[in-house]
Amino acid sequence: MVAYALAMIGVAAGWFGPIQILLPEHAARLAGEGGKESLLALVTAVGAGASLIANPLWGVLSDRMGARRRPIFVAGTVVGVAGLLVLSAADSRALMMTGWVLVQVGLNGPLAALAAMIGDRVPERQRGTVGALFGVAQIVGVVLGTALAVAVGQGAPGYIAVAVAVPALGAALLLLRDGHDGRGVARVAAGPTNWSVLLRPGAQFAWAWVIRFLLNLVNALVLVYLFYYLSDRVGVTDAATWVLILTVVNVLFAGLFGFAGGVLSDRWQRRKVFVVAAGVILAAGTTLMALFPVVAVVIVASVLVGAGWGAYVAVDMAVITHVLPDAETRATMLGVANIAGTLPQLLAPVVAAPIVTRLGGYPALYLLTAGFAVLALLCLPRLKALS
């Protein structure tokens, strides 16, 4: 599990270091102050569109290989690192977009592999704890990617540092024995994909997917323009440093609530109460960001957003793996489930850009974000498969 967690930290660093600091600075450098929001929205939206297709395809490939996960992990990592190196040299909008598409397509490979390993190897009674560990690892990766971007500098040095960190943190996973380890689910035989499960995934999987999508959309909307929110709305002088500070605050509370929540959810064998807590706390935090754009309140809001996201991360994988249709299509359906995490990246800039520039600014954006958290709560009673 230590090897898996380190690998997930690397994947998250490769994703969120660019999203939080490197890409916003890159967009401002190429497009100027007047066009930075639009360019960032375009680049992240196209990348997320590629991610939307890539994740289930990696899952299908893994299932067709007889649930062999490590080749998928390696291949995706190579493509993702190549994309980061392209970004380090990107001096045009087209090259910036190409690099980010490669990052998104590539890093979906290790993400799909790591998610499937939980279903393969972890008994259901322990999936809250282990899923929370993976969720916390993702959050730690956000901090690592952001810290690297601040420490080594924006532009090429930041991208190169992240490109080194991703495979370095994933290396330990390659030393582990692949397949059944005696505690989880044995490898299934390779064979043709059961495409009908994609068309009829079941109502409970569909409702779990919608809830995951809405809460991931909340998180994406908080992050997508955080750099610009701090500089343009809150008025801080060093937005990159403040992004790092708020990310650290967010991670501390997300990690605390995530890991504690995962352990408690396994002990109690209850998942819904943690989703309720997540929705309420996320709505409160984003409402504060909307109404009180001052540093002290934004720090409090970061605490709440971190705690709320941690409460959801505590049970996210346990919820999704509980409602999977069957073991033979585990990676395929987890790829579909992961669309609920990547699609918000596509929609967040599309939704946020017109609101920030023309339709009410940051107050309207973060009030809408709070509304999505409430909507997830309204969907929760339909998820009858869970206690």
Automatic annotation (TrEMBL):
Q: Which keywords does the record carry?
A: Membrane, Transmembrane, Transmembrane helix
Per the record, its GO cellular-component terms are: plasma membrane
Recorded hits in PROSITE patterns, A to Z, give: MFS
Where is the Major facilitator superfamily (MFS) profile domain positioned along the sequence? 1-387
Residue intervals passing through the bilayer: 40-60, 72-90, 96-118, 130-152, 158-176, 205-228, 240-261, 273-292, 298-324, 336-356, 362-380
Q: Which domain of life is it from?
A: Bacteria
Q: Kindly give the membrane topology term recorded for this protein.
A: Multi-pass membrane protein
Q: Does the keyword Transmembrane apply?
A: yes
Q: Where in the cell is it found?
A: Cell membrane
GO MF, one term, reads: transmembrane transporter activity
Name of the protein in its database record:
MFS transporter
